[in-house]
Design a protein that fits this description.
Elements (H helix, E strand, L loop, with lengths): L21 H7 L14 H8 L7 E5 L2 E5 L9 H42 L24 H8 L4 H15 L13 H10 L11 H9 L14 H6 L10 H8 L17 E5 L11 H15 L3 E7 L8 E11 L2 E12 L2 E7 L15 H16 L1 H4 L12 E6 L5 H9 L9 E7 L7 E2 L14 H4 E4 L3 E5 H8 L2 E4 L2 H6 L10 H6 L4 E3 L30 H16 L9 E5 L8 H13 L3 E6 L3 H13 L4 E5 L3 H10 L2 E4 L9 H7 L3 E5 L2 H6 L13 E3 L4 H17 L1 H12 L5 H16 L3
Parallel strand pairs: 3-4, 3-8, 4-7, 8-9, 9-13, 13-14, 15-16, 15-18, 16-17, 18-19, 19-20
Antiparallel strand pairs: 1-2, 5-6, 6-7, 10-12, 11-12
């Protein structure tokens, strides 16, 4: 923001407003350094209420400030001209008064909220005042200095700066736009009218950024780049969108039905979540579920949220934006296109390129160099999305913006933000957060792979790691951990494990050095997809939806349906044990194999669903072949079958050697299925051991990844199931009664994003 001539110390203009001096008084307001925290919904009133009546006024720059000359052009000595000028000024003042009324009511609402907190603390509160157009309150009192001070304390200078930039850019004509303002405010108008949330505005437009890099600034674009601004010019002027200014002002001023404030309050931000997979379009595990659900929860809190992911196939969702770019990786040019969809108040942007096509069924297929090139291209394209893709008619820009990168696949994004932009005075108000979903996968490779990253030589130190396991090598995850402003692990327990030699996989020292910016947040679940009351996979084939009130009958019905579908003997008295997961060393499938002789001796039924290592897939088939009356092994993955196993089983087994968070145990508890888990990472955080003396707890845990420990825990669960039905039903209902939604996790993520925002 270009500094104006002088800051004003208060907003007294709101309480002592002279209609004939409305314009000159309002000229001071954008530079008022004492006002904080205007939410995005206020900007509509400024634009519609003020830009229209002031369209005939004359504006010009004056040493970085904006001066308004309300006088009409032509000689002012004639009485007729003076009268016309006076009438024009009065009309303009009426519009400003409508704006003033809205602002004062917002202030009064804020003061009433503060007063309610004071009442709870036992202190006296001031009566909230609502102001009329003549600047008097309902009880005849005028806003005084004390009230002004109270109002000032509820706003931030940074929010005012964003507001000032917006108003200045709106008031100036096209050839007088302030440096750093949004070049085309028609897009902003379209955004407001369409109902999309707007949080803040770009401090540097795409064109200015590209021109800066042309003058010698390092650029992610490489040696070649193409943008679509030329085709935008050829398309002609954008259609003018007209609105009813009077109706807009009426609604904003409280005479109509006003929208409730966002849950995030004045902390709303622009958030861009970047990940290699996103459910339901692409998914190999929990990462895809998180990226598909967390952004929607953040949007429900009032943030403007975007998800950026590769376009591995021809998705039905997403329209071609017409924006195409070229990026160079190690001397080779790759063209990308941006596709955009707006779903559940979230912008989904898919990056299309031939290098991504055909990997929808196996996202991480290919040799090390091929995978690295895909991730480098993805991060380069993603870091420029805020300027390239006009979601809802306006780009996100780099103001009040936070990138959320996920795992090593996007760990290059914080590095690119720092190396190509922040190191050169750009993207000053952009931050990056890196989420650790699985630190075991780090993007390791020889030091020679640095040539693919297109980074300055001095950044090599961020990637070079010498550890006893891998020796001296290139480590992409490490560079992301060092350069990100904040780090999130997907559970409290996993945040601690990442700092140990056993759980850090060679990066434990790096994580410990950056523990000051590390926080653990347990994932949530999507209650629309995983809810026994609403589950679409339980509506036929003998399955039924059920709730905590109909748990006993509903779950028994689903259990019978599952036994029939899988060809198992239909028995209501036998406990059904389920396993759903990847067949690999991490998930502890071999521990189940070691325990199998004991398991098949019990009066139980075992259902296993998963895909992975060939030897473990063969083991599943072998279990079923040798124990047809007790075991079913489903090799592959089916969403429908996973839902039905979760609903029909009595016990879910999760013997994972390490589990950053885990979602299946959360799904199980939501459906009244009792988990038996290895007490690591998120499993330890979410499954509290059952205590028969106090009748508390949610399941059973075992401390060591050994078959004997698993047998002991599972044996106690079977014993309780058979002989202590009341305790068993209590465990089920406690699990179903929890708030496992993403809304709770989103609030904690918001705290991390705020910490990053105010971290310099």
């Amino acid at each position: 923001m270009v500094p104006l001539e002088r800051p004003c110390s208060s907003i007294s203009i709101l309480s002592s407003f002279d209609p004939l001096e409305g314009l000159s008084a309002f000229r001071k307001f954008p530079n008022c350094g004492s006002v904080r925290a205007f939410s995005g919904r206020h900007f509509t009133v400024f634009k519609v209420g003020l830009s229209s009546p002031l369209s005939s006024s004359k504006f010009f720059k004056n040493r970085g400030g904006v001066t308004v000359n309300a006088q009409n052009e032509g000689p002012s000595s004639e009485d007729e001209g003076s009268e016309a000028s006076l009438q024009a000024t009065v009309q303009q003042s009426k519009k400003v008064l409508a704006l003033q009324k809205e602002l004062l009511q917002q202030i009064a609402e804020r003061r009433k909220l503060v007063s309610s907190f004071k009442d709870k603390l036992g202190s006296s509160s001031k009566k909230a005042q609502y102001f009329n157009e003549d600047n008097s309150s309902e009880d005849g009192e005028v806003l005084g200095k004390n009230e002004e001070t109270e109002v000032q304390e509820n706003f931030s200078e940074e929010s005012l700066a964003n507001l000032s930039n917006t108003i200045s850019a709106e008031f100036l004509s096209e050839d007088q736009t302030l440096p750093g303002s949004v070049p085309d405010m028609k897009r902003f108008n379209a955004l407001e009218i369409s109902g999309r949330p707007s949080v803040s505005f770009s401090t540097s437009s795409p064109k200015s950024l590209l021109s800066t890099t042309t003058l010698g600034m390092p650029s992610v674009l490489g040696t070649k780049s193409e943008d679509l601004y030329d085709s935008e010019k050829e398309a002609g002027p954008e259609p003018e969108i007209k609105t009813d200014a009077k109706a807009e002002i009426t609604t904003a001023s409280g005479e109509g039905e006003a929208k409730p404030p966002p849950l995030a309050g004045t902390n709303v931000m622009n958030i861009i979540v970047v990940a290699a997979e996103c459910a339901p379009w692409s998914k190999t595990g929990g990462l895809g579920d998180v990226v598909g659900a967390l952004p929607k929860a953040l949007a429900r809190r009032g943030h403007r949220v975007m998800v950026v992911a590769p376009r591995y196939g021809d998705y039905r969702e997403g329209q071609d934006t017409g924006v195409h770019k070229k990026y160079r990786i190690h001397g080779q040019d790759f063209e990308v296109g941006y596709y955009q969809a707006y779903i559940d108040n979230v912008d989904f942007v898919f990056i299309k390129s031939p290098i991504f096509q055909g990997f929808n069924n196996n996202i991480y297929q290919g040799n090390r160099e091929d995978i690295l090139k895909r991730m480098v291209l993805f991060c380069k394209a993603a870091v420029e999305v805020p300027w390239q893709v006009p979601c809802g008619g306006v780009c996100y820009g780099d103001g009040n913006l936070v990138f959320v990168a996920n795992d090593w696949h996007t760990a290059l994004l914080p590095v690119y933000v720092q190396a190509y932009y922040r190191d050169h005075g750009l993207m000053k108000y952009t931050r990056s957060v890196l989420v650790i979903h699985n630190i075991a996968h780090q993007g390791r490779g020889p030091l020679d792979d640095y040539k693919f990253l297109d980074l300055p030589e001095h950044y090599m130190d961020c990637f070079k790691l010498n550890d006893p396991v891998g020796g001296e090598h290139l480590n992409i995850f490490m560079a992301g951990l060092k350069t990100a402003h904040q780090i999130v692990a997907v559970s409290h327990g996993y945040a601690w494990e990442c700092q140990t030699s056993e759980g850090g996989w060679g990066l434990h020292e790096v994580v410990k050095e950056n523990a000051w910016k590390l926080r653990g947040i347990v994932n949530g679940i999507d209650n629309n997809d995983w809810s026994p009351e609403l589950d679409v996979h339980l509506k036929n084939d003998g399955y039924v939806n059920y709730s905590i009130e109909t748990l006993e009958t509903g779950k028994a019905t689903c259990k019978t349906a599952l036994q029939k579908e899988l060809g198992l003997p239909v028995r209501s008295d036998v406990p059904v044990i389920g396993f759903i997961g990847r067949l690999d060393f991490q998930k502890g499938v071999d521990i189940i194999a070691e325990s199998m002789p004991w398991i098949v001796q019990q009066d139980i039924q075992l259902v296993m669903l998963g895909t992975g290592r060939n030897d473990l897939e063969s083991m599943l088939r072998s279990f079923e072949g040798h124990h047809r009356d007790k075991v079913r092994g489903w090799v592959g993955f089916s969403v429908r079958t996973a839902h039905r196993i979760t609903a029909g089983c009595d016990i879910l087994l999760m013997p994972s050697r390490f589990e950053p968070c885990g979602l299946n145990q959360l799904y199980a508890m939501r459906y009244g299925t009792v988990p038996v888990v290895h007490a690591v990472g998120g499993l330890k955080d979410t499954v509290k051991p059952f205590d028969p003396f106090s009748e508390t707890g949610l399941g059973w845990t075992f401390e060591c990844a050994e078959s004997s420990k698993l047998i002991h825990a599972l044996g106690n669960a079977l014993w309780t199931y058979r002989d202590y039905k009341q305790s068993w039903h209590g465990i089920q209902k406690r699990g179903m009664s929890q708030d496992l939604s993403w809304d709770n996790a989103a609030k904690q993520y918001e705290e991390v994003l705020l910490a990053a925002k105010y971290q310099w």
